[in-house]
Structures are given as structure tokens and as C-alpha cells.
Design brief:
The protein is an alpha+beta fold and 145 residues long. Helix content is 43%, strand content 10%.
Length: 145
Amino acid sequence: MKFHQASSNFAAGFLAIASIAGISALTVTPQFTTPAIAQETGEPVTTKSTPNAIALAKHLRKIGAKVYTAYWCPHCHDQKERFGKEAVSQLDIVECDLRGVNPQRELCIAKRIRGFPTWEIDGNFYPGNQPLENLARLSKYRGDI
């Protein structure tokens, strides 16, 4: 009973101080909606893109091609290095790990992605780090590589 009275007195005192200071109890109480998940990024892409790689990446995005990746995947990083930094920014990259940036885990599960990277081109799936020439052929790209 003493604890209840003491906590009531403390709360009343806090509210009095808060009203004098011009703040409300609601602004002091933290609001949490969902637990935070640390967002992880992979290694940065360091290679420079060729104009042909940029054009291929733009073509892949235009036809709706996606590459499913995980931030920790070394093969995914190697695939990105093949394109180069500028071209990678043009790709539609789907992060499958919940700890990655902007994860789309449900999409990866729905698409039954089992390995990384996996390319989706015209409804077909191609696992593994693909040469740019192969991606051009699979996507019916007409430019130079």
C-alpha cells in the first residue's frame, strides 16, 4: 500500500512540474509501435560502369527484370561489381534478408527464391552470378556489351 501511495505522489508531482514547464505527460512518454531491426548493407560497389553496362541495366529495369539478393552474399556483390556502381543504381534489386535495407522477404518467399543472386527475366528464374552477355541474351537486349 505504501508503494502505491508513493507512486501516486510521484506521478502527481511529475504532472505538476510538467504543467509548470509547459509539457504534457504524452510528450514525455515514448511511443513504440514495432521493434526496430538493424538495417545492414553489403560491401560497396567500387567498379566503374561502362556505358554498355549502364544501357543493359536500364534495359533490364525497363522490361521488369529483377535480381533477388541478400546483403551478405558474396556472389551478389560480385554480380554488382560486374555491372559497376553507376549501372547497379539502375537495376531493380530485391533484398531478401530481413536485416537488409528495404527487405522484401515475403516477395522472395512467394517467388521461391532459394539462392542468391537469382535473376527474374520474363517470368523465368536464373540463379547465380550471370555474365552480362548472358543477361543481354536472356533479356533480348539489342545493344553492345
